[in-house]
Amino acid sequence: MFFLAFGLILVALLFVMKISITIRYKHDKDDDRLTIVIRLLGGLVKIKKEFPSIKVNKEDQTIDVKSESNVGKKESKGKVGSEDMQNYFEQLNEIKKRVVHLQKIVRRFLKHVHVTEFRWKSVIGINDAALTGIICGSAWAIKGSCIALLDQNLKLKIRPEIEVIPSFFHAESKTNLTCILSFRMGHAMGAAIRLLTYWRGSKRTLVNKPQPLESKS
Prior knowledge:
single chain, 6 helices, 38% helix
């Protein structure tokens, strides 16, 4: 009886436990860095994944990605090309075909995702002042559309901070983006159960596909 009660309490705690995801992206000319931090149990458990180097190869239209993780202190390098992206999209389309009511399941889950922080600051400039103004205006429009999408699909708990600073005197390209999301484990588990419930056909078809990203540790 004790173990049953303990198990029920543990399951209840798992359902109400919050998961926090912090996404930080920094762009400064040719330097692109992406950091993703997942926190559990109020920050007692932290999983950090960094992409400190993202380089675009103009010759073969591929992207070199270097990543670091605090889980096992692993470091890996990989290359992503057009064929890899095509494979990813094919997998996503396969999931869309096999899961009934996929959009409803995703939208239902996203309604439980809270945005607790959103800051996006950019500095843009080229040698032409008039063209710089046009580009900055377009940047404001893009950021406004992104905020509207967030407000439509997620729960905004704060007022997003967005800023576009024009640089009229010299070429400049900088962006700093910070977004913090949180949701309860129970809502994620519920979405996963619904995905499995409405899955049609064999679940092994996607698992058996080769991973498109070749990496070496």
